[in-house]
Amino acid sequence: MTARKKSATLWTIQGLLAALFLFAGITKFLLPPEILQQGPIALPLGFLRFIGAAEIAGAIGLVLPGIFHIRQYLTAFAAVGLVLVMTGATVLNLHYGTVGPALIPFVVGLLSATVAYGRRGWTALD
């Protein structure tokens, strides 16, 4: 794969992940607590808001450093942070016996890991 194709692929993944995490993070702040805490896994509201903030920060970190060419190493760090969030979501789903829904955060975590690995060249401090 050429460097240009690799970069385009990574940018596509980064953009899609940023949109996904931005949507998920904002949703955690806009939905009423009763709706957020429904379902098989009821988590404390403060923890859900923290995860939402982490998702929003991760979404921003996936795209803005590369767009502005400032502190681009933050993109790889944001991707690693999102891998950790998705690992937690996967483990939590598996712990509560919901294998099907665990596949979504697992795949999103793999995509985030792909960005972290693909942008490892940006980790040299500017």
Task: For this entry, give a set of tags.
126 residues; mainly alpha; 5 helices; globular
Portion of residues in beta strands equals under 5%
Rounded radius of gyration (Å): 15 Å
Domain module count: 1
Residue runs with pLDDT of under 50 for 5 or more positions: none
Shape assignment: globular
Q: How would a crystallographer describe the biggest sheet?
A: none
Secondary-structure-based class equals: mainly alpha
Number of helical runs?
Answer: 5
Give the SSE string.
HHHHH
Task: Report on this structure.
This protein has 126 residues and is mostly helical. It has one domain (3-123). The protein is built from five helices and no strands. Helix 4 (73-95) packs antiparallel against helix 5 (99-118).
In short:
With 126 residues, the protein is an all-alpha fold. It has helices at 3-30, 33-36, 45-68, 73-95, 99-118.
Strands, helices and their partners?
Layout: H1 3-30, H2 33-36, H3 45-68, H4 73-95, H5 99-118
